[in-house]
Amino acid sequence: MAESYLTVSGPGRASFEVRGSEFIGHVRHAATTDEAEAFVDAVCDEHVDATHNVPAYRVRIDSNGPTDSVLLREYSSDDGEPSGSAGKPMLNVLQGQELENVVAVVTRYYGGTNLGVGGLVRAYGKAVKDAVADTDVVEEVPKERFTATVEYDDSGTVRGILESADCEFDADYAETVSFAVTVPRADASALRERLRNATSGRVELGG
């Protein structure tokens, strides 16, 4: 079963200079690749006059899915810096700290002095480390979402089970009663089975 993972709780930022070049590290949580790429675009727009805006991210591509497998989408680019001198060192920091669902962008304003590949590797890595240090690293538990729809006669039973379980839910009382449930993935199958058994299979479960 998918286990918990480490991520950042919020945005982090750090800046420093190396031989005249300014480096600004940005990190934030991203639940999807779309969120990660949107953050990269936002930083590029904010620092459109920068010499480089170098991205890297590690995102669970099925973090809300129904299966037990977890796949990581890992991405980095050097954005015009020498190959392997920027994006890969940034990704290495995220990997080394075992961070997932996190995106980093390092902005560089060139100061007129070449730093060499080694200097760039150190600077880009440091920018990510410092930006992560500016926020909190937290443990996240993979969640699964599903709906449970029943007639009113069964709604009290279902609500009681959900209130006693380690989950969050919202109830919509219309012609039928629909519960939108968010539960740790490790507990999802057992909770669905409890609902089926308690309603003699009358509950309608959806994604």
Structure description:
The protein is of the alpha+beta class. It folds into 2 domains: 136 residues, Ribosomal Protein S5, domain 2 (2-Layer Sandwich); 64 residues, 2-Layer Sandwich (Alpha-Beta Plaits), CATH 3.30.70.240. Helix content is 33%, strand content 34%. It has 5 helices and 11 strands. The protein has a 5-stranded antiparallel beta sheet, with helices on both faces. Strand 9 and strand 10 form a beta hairpin. Helix 4 packs antiparallel against helix 5. The longest helix is centred in the middle third of the chain and has 18 residues. The protein is elongated and about 75 Å long. About 2% of the residues have low confidence.
Q: Keyphrases for this structure?
A:
single chain, about 210 residues, alpha+beta, Ribosomal Protein S5, domain 2, Alpha-Beta Plaits, 2 domains, five-stranded antiparallel β-sheet, four-stranded antiparallel β-sheet, 5 helices, 11 strands, about 35% helix, elongated, Ribosomal_Su5_D2-typ_SF, EFG_III/V
Short characterization:
The chain has 207 residues and is of the alpha+beta class. The chain contains five helices and eleven strands. It comes from Halocalculus aciditolerans.
